[in-house]
Each structure stands twice: as C-alpha cells, then as structure tokens.
Amino acid sequence: MTHDSTSSPQRRVRGLTLIEVVVAASILAIAALALLELLTSSNSIGLSTRRQALAAIEVERALELCSEAIKAGDPLPPAAILEAGMEGEALQGCILTVTSRESSEEFVIPAAGPNGAPRTIEINVRLLIARVETEGGETIIEAERAVPID
Predict the structure, then answer these.
(1) Would you list the DSSP string of the chain?
(2) pTM of the predicted structure, to 2 decimals
(3) Which of 138, 117, 51, 46 has its CA nearest to residue 86?
(4) Strand partners of residue 145
C-alpha cells in the first residue's frame, strides 16, 4: 500500500500561510511606529534643551552687559544690543527683556574678637532680571543679578 501525501490528514505544511505573514507584518509595523514615535519625541526634547541652553547663554550675556553699564554709570543698553545674539535658529522669534529696580540689602557682619559686636550694614543694589520668552509669552529662562551701586 502506498501513501499518498495529499490525502494524509497529518500533512506537514512547509512555509508560511498568508495569515501568518499578515500578523507578522502587523507586529513589525506597530514596533516600527513605536520606535518612530520615540525618535520624534527625543528630537523634540533635544531641541527644547538646546533652546534653553542657548537662552541661558544669552541671558548671562545680557546681564553682564547691563552690569558693566551700571558699574560705569551708564544707562542700560538698548534692546537691539541685548538681543544681538538672538538671531539664531533656536531662539528666532524669542524676546529678551531686562528689567531693573533699586533695592537696599542688609548684611550682618559677625562679631570680630571676644569683645566685638555684630554689625549690620546696608548696601544699595540694582537688581537686574533678565528673561527670554517665546512670542507666545512662555518663559524659557529667567535669571537675576544684584549689582552694588554707590
């Protein structure tokens, strides 16, 4: 008796069926979309971090320019000079503002020697506050610096 391979109920199928191929392709597509989403969000976070770092550099530069002007007895530099470094792609459209107000700060000097008494001195300062904002008004970074004045 001969066995006919086409009539046997225990026939082994070699290769993949169409359903198996579709399921495998679907799983790979979902995994690829998840990876693409991860890369996109990573790029967005990187751009945001870069923007914040560049804004911090510009804020420090502006505070330094304003501090030097105050020490020299000059008025604060105009906005055009302060925003000179803001033309780059990451900070394009952002606004840099520097505000100032005068204040008095009291400092206590500890007692010197066994018979000394603590002393309180008052120092007049100009508080500079620099802020970089987007066109929509969202603050990217803000920093302040106190500059002693006579």
Answers:
(1) -PPPTTT-TTPPPPS--HHHHHHHHHHHHHHHHHHHHHHHHHHHHHHHHHHHHHHHHHHHHHHHHHHHHHHHTPPPPPHHHHTTTTTSTTTTT-EEEEEEEEEEEEEEEPP-SSS---EEEEEEEEEEEEEEE-TTS-EEEEEEEEEE--
(2) 0.64
(3) 51
(4) 128
Reported as a single tens digit per residue, the pLDDT across 26-46 is 999 999 998 888 888 777 788
Q: How far apart are CA 105 and CA 126, in angstroms?
A: 10
Is 81 among the domain residues?
A: yes
Structural contact between residues 85 and 58, judged by C-beta atoms closer than 8 angstroms: yes
Residue 87 has pLDDT above 90, yes or no: no
Total number of domains in the chain: 1
Q: What is the band of 127 on the pLDDT scale with cuts at 50, 70, 90?
A: very high
* Within a domain: 1: no
